[in-house]
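Our preliminary data section would be incomplete without showing what the modeling component actually yields. Below, a chain of 146 amino acids is followed by its predicted structure, encoded as tokens that our downstream tools consume directly.
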Amino acid sequence: MVDRLTPERRSYLMSRVRGKDTKPEMRVRRLAHALGFRFRLHRRDLPGKPDLVFPRYGKIVFVHGCFWHRHEGCRLATQSKSRTEFWEAKFQRNVERDRRVQAELRALGWEVLIVWECETRQPERLENILVGFLKAERPQTAANNG
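Predicted structure:
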């Protein structure tokens, strides 16, 4: 299938895709703040520059777009009809990087939650997810002991 857009137009549209301050991320931030949780944003000193960092709780939240991070079984994780090899390789690198970053953060003693874009569209469900994660007791590990 041929791309209906010119290379210049496609490049412009792709340049508009943002990695932070996205609508789903803003929904999570607003809700977490309204629930009384305080956090830091995009800490560069942590692997993967997490979207929300809750230092008091030792917890991190990433807000992942279903399309870019391949939310399994989600209708938003569509497949490209053109340049399929390129997109499959890109998506695979994203998923592998996500796994590596989460493992690094856990090794540093952080608990990690992934909130998917589609979950941010259901405010009650999102609230349950956030409260359940942030209010859960933190398991004791050598990294956060004492």
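The longest helix spans residues 84-107. The chain has a mean pLDDT of 89. Preliminary results of this kind motivate Aim 1 of the renewal.
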